[in-house]
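Recall that a protein's primary structure is simply its ordered list of amino acids. Everything else, from secondary elements to tertiary packing, is in principle encoded there. The following example makes that idea concrete.
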Amino acid sequence: MTVAAVPEGPLVIGVDSSTQSTKVLAVDAATGAVLARGRAAHTVSPGTARESDPRQWWTALCEALEQCGDHARQAAAVSVGAQQHGLVTLDAAGEPVRPALLWNDVRSADQRDRLISELGGPRAWARRLGSVPPPAFTVTKWAWLREREPAAARATAAVRLPHDYLTERLTGQAVTDRGDASGTGWWGTERQEYDRRVLDHVGLTPEMLPRVLRPGEAAGTVRQVPGLPLPAGALVATGTGDNMAAALGLGLRTGQPVLSLGTSGTVYAVSDRRPTDPTGTVAGFADARDAWLPLACTLNCTLAVDRFAALLGRDREAVEPGGTVTVLPFLDGERTPHLPAATGMLHGLRHDTSPGQVLQAAYDGAVYALLTALETVLGPDADLRAPLLLIGGGARGTAWRATIQRLSGRPVRVPRAQDLVALGSAAQAAGLLLGEDPVAVARRWATADGPSYEAVPRDDAALERVAATLAGAGTLLGAS
């Protein structure tokens, strides 16, 4: 879909290959204006196995680029941001051995527990690798594949992440970046290289993995590929994982906190300090440049609150103040706090409790978990005057924004820019093309501009009510 027509500078392409679809933006590198957009859907297997054929990502990329028309055909540079952690297994001919295991395929939970135990425990993983891997991480999926599908593992000549796979299809080069590599569980942040101890333990070699590029290094140039509506010879940037690309898209400064309000909730900030959280709450990612991106995730965010709204027969914005009811909306278990077996809980219901108060309590419970995760990410030296940047689908909701203001006591800003992963990829492509820092490019594009809201007094009573309910829930919460 074409949005605008006359660029002031060269054109760049930013790609967001997510779980459900590929989005493409054609962007004016001089101004950040989005000139055209394209989108094509993916399919994901149903049930506990969350898998996709990587070849459909390539087909979707070509379809989305085609929707951008001549803007794609005139692009001077491209970069791919994609869902993190997915396990892509390729044979000696470069074809997928089997469908990719996606980040949200958690069948590897048992293998994850064994890996952590066999290689020194959580503290050792945090110190060397930067993270205690959850079942989302790629290393646990590879361990699962070796155990459950040994023939597929033996047929695997190369292992890639989703963004690596697409970049290699574009350039013919087996490369990756430090940001996405830091979410595999086999690239160590301590030495910033593949960890041979982990690789030996799981039966991989560095030769099976892509070369990790330096920040700002080109992945190569676009090859002449039938059906690809990009010009041969266009520059291809390193690309990165989706969270790292979104950080680029916002032009984040060190310590600037982000709350991403989607089906799950994600909180992160760029840091100069390498994260090493032995509890596993904070993933110690590298960013797409030369710093770090500590990140924590909550499983229950907009989808859980919307479920309460549906059960109550109310619009998601139809909240009401007051009352003493508390909701712990942990409908899918929870990651922060670590309660994988948790179920939802409603406490303190009275005759005069209204449906709107119950819905507000669901927001409170979800935001409490987000803010607790953010506190862990930022640490004790956080600047409490810095506004919280709200992104994702929930950021457009008044109830989400007002609840975060009330429970954080901090100012809030809602960036107007949409499709931040693709926009960050575009900024990376523009930075490579123009010889600029991609974060400086994004700031020049004013991607983080948007409505700002002043701090309001923090509702400590509500926070204490949620904390007390959580502390006293015990086995009632399914936390045995």
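The radius of gyration is 22 Å. Residues 355-378 form the longest helix (24 residues).
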